[in-house]
Predict the 3D structure of the following.
Amino acid sequence: MTVHVAGPPAPSSLEEIRPFRAEVPQSDLDDLAGRLAATRWATEVEPDPAAPVQAGPVPPGWEYGVPLSYVRRLVEYWRSGFDWRAVEARLNAHPQFLTEIDGQRVHFLHVRSPEPDALPLILNHGWPNGVVEFLDVLGPLTDPRAHGGDPRDAFDVVLPSLPGFGFSGPTGAPGWNRYRIAAAWAELMRRLGYSRYGTHGNDAGAYVAPELGRLAPGAVVGVHVSQLFSFPSGDPAELEGLTDDEQAQLAFLQVFDEEMSAFAKLQATKPQNLAHALADSPAGQLAWVAQLLASTSDEHVVTNAAMAWLTNTGASSARLYWEDRHAAAPVTGPTTVPTGLASFAYDFTPLRRFAERDHANIVSWHEYDRGGHWSAQDAPDLLVEDLRGFFRGLR
């Protein structure tokens, strides 16, 4: 059955919104199980027990990258303990839909609040996460009354899979960068009948959300993000007079760039070099997503690896970095929509002087001493409360 969005204008056939259920064929799961059982393991060097442990973001044993012992353990869990059907049940507990925007299939969850005055909110997940990044916060966001909150803080949540991710399927054409995604989300919200809404983004989603605000300032009441990716321009004058805390923040970014950013550089330059391995080896897909998700639970890592594998979107999700690197901003200058930052421990905390250069209307700035880059997993209570507080004054 195909349903249409109510309200003017009447949708064309390309604007149809169709109900969707996650139902992977059993044959695909059987093929996956066979591949996992037949994994050929990588070799690695034994660490020197006498070598000094280096301080920094790389844990011991991970100096070369994701270690064999970690991948063996998670592949065994994926093969014998992980239940994909339970993941499908979690997704199918919420209304899901498909539509086509700008020639691309788009999968999204649309979870309405029981509160009549709920503010629409579109969430933007990161890489290598997917819509599962935000499943645990859907209840508190849409139904705060049932979760100890104020019903006046309720949201109608729209949670799409970024083009090239998960059930949105592989991208079929070039050019799906943050700007094109933001334009697609503006169209998605229009089709859903929302003329006024907020947005939140984390990781790659924190690139998309500000662009949605820039593109549709008359509709977007506020942009909330977990990162503001504002960096020095290269002008030495910008670095004059930095405080000790600001210098420490820049040092953190430099260490991450030197020690942890190989994935970003590869995906931004020649992602197809890796694509063939990701499409052929579930263990390889697991290791590739684990380099950034290992701080979350084993269940969450394997869920995202399984989603990428079963939808064959490992390559297309990685291409987002290439598309962004080669994109030209359609509109330049600082964003002007009210912007809020919730920065969590052990994550990129931007220097406010650079953030205010790129975002002219920062009205909320909170730095937390717990959580992490994946705050919806690490500190969901803090994330939910920051979202509620930020949008409370913008409704």
